[in-house]
Structure formats: structure tokens, C-alpha cells
Automatic annotation (TrEMBL):
Source organism, top-level taxon: Bacteria
Lineage of the species this protein comes from: Bacteria, Pseudomonadati, Bacteroidota, Cytophagia, Cytophagales
Protein known as: Four helix bundle protein
Listed SUPFAM superfamilies: IVS-encoded protein-like (SSF158446)
UniProt xrefs under Pfam families: 23S_rRNA_IVP
């Protein structure tokens, strides 16, 4: 997958999470989980962009490591929302699948560059 494709895909993921966050109930538990998800999902896109601007191979690998952590963390927060939510099950499943796919893609990239 091309760098530009991943930049677009991770930005789209962040935008979809922002849309989801705006629709979450205003109760404390939803807002707490929602804010954590908002932080981790937007970090995926930001660190992807940063990785491709890395000054060295080592810096690139480090940034990709952050992307992996944040994508995986996003998946965790989405899972929690799935378990406590009655609504948006289908949308949450799609977002969880995307978080898992991004984690797998960037893990593959990291392994390739570490080898």
C-alpha cells in the first residue's frame, strides 16, 4: 500500500471516529471512553504522517511503532463501546475491523523495515 493511501486511510479513520464521538451519549462513561478513542484514533493519522516525514530509518520505525500502539488501543476502546452500547453496533464493528486492519498493516510494515 502506498504512503499516500495510508495517509488518506488513517485520516478517514480519524474522521469517522470524530463523527461517532459527536453522536455518543453525554454520560460520563461514554464521554470518558469516547475521549480516549478520539485521542488514540487521531494519533494514528498524525503519527502516520510524521513517520513518512522521518529523518532516518530508526525514526520511521519508532513512529510506526506508535501508530501500531494507537491503532490497537483504538480497537480496545471500540470494543468497550460495543459492549456497553445498544446502538451503532454495525458502525462500531466496521470501525473495530478498520482499527484491526490498520494494526495489521502497520505491524507488517514494521517487521519489513526491522528485517
Amino acid at each position: 500500500m502506498e504512503n499516500q493511501d495510508l495517509k488518506i486511510r488513517t485520516k478517514k479513520f480519524a474522521l469517522e471516529i470524530i463523527t461517532l464521538y459527536r453522536k455518543l451519549p453525554k454520560s460520563a462513561e461514554f464521554q470518558t471512553i469516547g475521549k480516549q478513542l478520539l485521542r488514540s484514533s487521531t494519533s494514528v493519522g498524525a503519527n502516520t504522517r510524521s513517520a513518512y516525514r522521518g529523518r532516518s530509518r530508526k525514526e520511521y520505525i519508532a513512529k510506526i511503532g506508535i501508530v501500531i500502539e494507537e491503532a490497537d488501543e483504538s480497537g480496545f476502546w471500540i470494543e468497550l463501546l460495543e459492549e456497553i452500547s445498544i446502538n451503532n453496533k454495525e458502525n462500531l464493528l466496521e470501525l473495530r475491523n478498520e482499527a484491526n486492519e490498520l494494526t495489521a498493516i502497520f505491524t507488517s510494515i514494521a517487521k519489513k523495515y526491522k528485517a
